[in-house]
Automatic annotation (TrEMBL):
Gene3D superfamilies: 3.40.50.450. This is DNA processing protein. Belongs to the DprA/Smf family. It comes from the Bacteria.
Amino acid sequence: MNTYLDYYNKLTEIEKKNSPKELFFKGDFSLLEFGRRVSVVGSRNVSEMGIKRTRFISNFLVDTQITVVSGLAEGVDTTAHLSTIEREGKTIAVIGTPLGQYFPVKNKKLQDQIAEEHLLVSQFPENYSVTPKNFPIRNRTMALISDATIIIEASEKSGTKHQGWESLRLGRELFIMENVIKENIIWAKEMLHYGAQVLTNDNYKDLIENIPYLTSKEEYAF
C-alpha cells in the first residue's frame, strides 16, 4: 500500500495518531490526494425533508467541485452517494466492514459502483469481524480524510455524534444543519461551544465555499 503510505506520511503527528496504519481501497485513490472532501452524514432513518436536504447539500458540493464523503449506511449516507453520482460528481465511501462485505446488503450495487468508478475505503482487513464498534472507528477515519463534516439530520442517540466529535478533535470544520439545533439535540448544541457552526439557508454558500484545504492543497480535475 505505498499509495496510502505516501498519504500517511503527509499527515501531522496528531493526525497520524488518529489514522489507521493500513487503509484498504478499491477505485481512484487520487480522490484522497487532490481537492477538498466533505463528509455528509446523518440519520439512517432519515425523514423526507432530510432526504431533500441531503440531496441539496450534496448537489451544491458537487457544483463547488468538492468530493462527497459518506459511510454507505442507509438514510443520509446512501442519499449523499446517490445524489453525487447522479450529479456526476466524485464520492468516497468509508465503510465499517472489510471491502468484500456489504452492510447493508441492499447497497451492494452502489458499493460496487463506487469501488469501480469512485473510491471505496476500509481500515478493516479481509475476514475481520464486523461488530457495532467498527462504525465509530470508521467515523474517525471519515473525519480524518475530510476537510469538513456536515451533519444533515440526527437524533439524540445517533451515531452521527461520533463523527462530529472526531471532526472537532482533529481540527476540521463541522457544520450542523439548523434543523438539528432547533430539535434541541443536546450533543449538537454542545458542539457549538467547541467550534461547530450552524448551517442555514442564508450562510451555507459562504461557509462551504470557504472550507480550507486541510488534507490536500491541489484541485481535483472533475
